[in-house]
Amino acid sequence: xxxxxxxxxxxxxxxxxxxxxxxxxxxxLIPIFVWNRQESExxxxxxxxxxxxxxxxxxxxxxxxxxxxxxxxxxxxxxxVIERLxxxxxxxxxxxxxxxxxxxxxxxxxxxxxLKDAGIxxxxxxxxxxxxxxxxxxxxxDPYQVFTPFWKNVLASIDPDKPLSAPEAIxxxxxxxxxxxxxxxxxxxxxxxxxxxxxxxxxxxxxxHESLSNFIRNGIDDYKGERDFxxxxxxxxxxxxxxxxxxxxxxxxxxxxxxxxxxxxDNGQPGADTYLSEIGWREFGYHILxxxxxxxxxxxxxxxxxxxxxxxxxxxxxxxQGMTGYPIxxxxxxxxxxxxxxxxxxxMIVGSFLAKDLLQNWKSGAEWFWDTLxxxxxxNNTLGWQWVxxxxxxxxxxxxxxxxxxxxxxxxxxxxxxxxxxxELSELPDKWIHxxxxxxxxxLKDAGIxxxxxxxxxxxDHQEAREAALAIYEKIK
Length: 477
Ligand code: FAD
Hints:
By secondary structure, the protein is mainly alpha-helical. The protein has three domains: 2-127, Rossmann fold (3-Layer(aba) Sandwich), CATH 3.40.50; 128-162 and 206-291, Alpha Horseshoe (Serine Threonine Protein Phosphatase 5, Tetratricopeptide repeat); 302-476, DNA Cyclobutane Dipyrimidine Photolyase, subunit A, domain 3, CATH 1.10.579. The protein is built from 20 helices and five strands. The chain has helices spanning 17-24, 47-66, 78-88, 102-117, 147-157, 197-200, 205-218, 223-226, 239-243, 249-262, 270-291, 313-321, 327-339, 344-357, 362-372, 378-389, 404-411, 416-421, 441-446, 462-476, and strands spanning 2-7, 28-34, 72-74, 91-97, 121-125. It has a five-stranded parallel beta sheet with strand order 3-2-1-4-5, sandwiched between helices. The N and C termini lie far apart (61 Å). The protein binds flavin-adenine dinucleotide. Flavin-adenine dinucleotide (FAD) is lined by residues 227, 235-239, 242-243, 278-279, 281-282, 285, 344, 347-348, 351, 369, 373, 375-377, 380-381, 383-385, 388. Flavin-adenine dinucleotide binds next to helix 9, helix 11, helix 14 and helix 16.
């Protein structure tokens, strides 16, 4: 008796319901991963995500090898792969953890139906959320569009069970299986752009747990106060690990609870509560994507679809390259390029700058993030961009335009973050670090800066851009 475990965004063995149920069925396992770019938007990952995926699959393959098995890789469409395995081996059942992106749902429902019609058992599980999006509803039976009541509802009902342990022993189907190699997926970028990523990240289940333990030991108690300061290591950096399912949110919530119990803080603690509510925002992103799938393309609030964006390719390029002349914006964009990640506060600032100061469609920003973030995630990227553009669920109000100078002065007061990512400004005194164009000529000269040459002049005047944006928003309101 044989079964297939189809891995997608659950690249772990711990707390993996599909893997555990397959083992408990007493069948021999064939674990597989399929990479076919035509299949769904969830698979059409950007370059930085592909780098992560390659290393994460390598790790999962090693874990299976330690248990005496193998993770098999295929490039044909999932349905053909599974049908071939069913034909060539005595497969009775397929196990997987669910996905929530619109195309992925369509693909999985079609696959489920055709397998069932062919008499094959299909077992699907929740492997990446605290609650399924369809389980959480308002008193009127509608989906939520506001975060706070959504999270209250989820918190009141999350599964208090301990996460499932990683299996101690797995029995594998040992007959030869024709498959391809991980390298055949060609996931690593051709340019050497991602070489630096290893300095910042350890993809894989073990890396995920090490990051979490480190954060719980050193960061969670101060999270509430530190999380907005990009120069500090105040956040957990769990986003790519969560996106690829190297760790589950249930494991994270459980680890936080164990930490609180150890500290005898039964009623929570500000750092831990705030941290859990960020995990809640991730859930909210999936809730919105599931119930309002059109939001990946169109605004949740339809009136914003008429916004007269100024799609200027030159401005977009300068934003992408971190050459806008606004230091906090440029530092964020350069951090993104160098590390595949950007601090949340800075994501909001660069997003607001693109949509409201440069009047570029938020979708161009979302596309750039999709290609360059190691944590690029359709649900959370869409939620984040619609939030900054003011067009989404529980969005920042349209009249909130982040002032890049004030944000910089408030959240990076000594300019440490700016100096880290924009070395050409490193000698500028703190007073001018967020507005070099206001610095007296001799100060600039002493700092070795020639505006327009060594560092750009501001691409737009923020006050003027703000007023122009507000006038348009006012009209479509
Ligand atoms: P922590 O502060 O340690 O938070 C813990 C976890 O909670 C994160 O790993 C993440 O899973 C979740 N989380 C935290 N903040 C948010 C949030 N605002 N929305 C949703 N989930 C959150 N997050 C992604 O995972 N993928 C994306 O593609 C993405 N794109 C974004 C685009 C924009 C314009 C904005 C404003 C935000 C975006 N975010 C995205 C949300 C957020 O910036 C990142 O999740 C966070 O910076 C990840 O760092 P961390 O793991 O250290 O977060």
